[in-house]
Amino acid sequence: MTIQEKTIPPFHLAFPVDDLARARAFYGVLLGCPEGRSSDEWVDFNFFGHQIVAHMADCSQKRLHHNSVDAHAVPVPHFGVVLNLEDWEVLAEKLRQAGTRFVIEPYVRFKGQPGEQATMFFYDPFGNAIEIKAFASLSSLFAK
Questions:
Q1: With 60 as the cut, is the pLDDT of residue 26 above it?
Q2: Structural domain spans, the chain
């Protein structure tokens, strides 16, 4: 069974923010993630079919680490989503138009190799690293 034939269960990720209004503006408005339940301490977002939760926390003590991938310094930890190429291009342009400061500008990595993918990295307003990627064919998601 290929990945296209499977129903993938949504993942859940909780991450720190120090301003829920800014989280709503970034995730809800800029990235277009509908808001779910919320309280004074957290907000659920539908992150492309997955549940992410912005929890109020002290974001001043971030430890940043990077690994080299395709000659770029990839921030660790990070989270993200795999889109189709058309949606990836639309989102990349939306982020450019919004003046997003990319950690790694949108580009295609591993060109001509198994796992060739479009990717981009940026931080949310709280220092959480996000990667959005796309493949010409989702069947190459786990290609070696």
A1: yes
A2: 3-57+64-140
- Strands 102-109 and 78-84, how do they pair? unpaired
95: left (phi over 0), alpha (psi -120 to 50) or beta: alpha
Order of strands, edge to edge, in the sheet holding 117-123?
Answer: 78-84, 129-135, 117-123, 102-109
Decide: pTM greater than 0.90: no
For 32, list phi and psi in degrees, rounded to 5.
75, 30
d(CA 36, CA 30): 16
Q: Fold for domain 3-57+64-140?
A: 2,3-Dihydroxybiphenyl 1,2-Dioxygenase; domain 1 (3.10.180)
Q: Using 50, 70 and 90 to split pLDDT, how confident is the model at 6?
A: low
Q: Find the helix or strand (DSSP H, E) in which 106 lies.
A: strand 102-109
Residue 27 · residue 33 · CB < 8 Å: yes
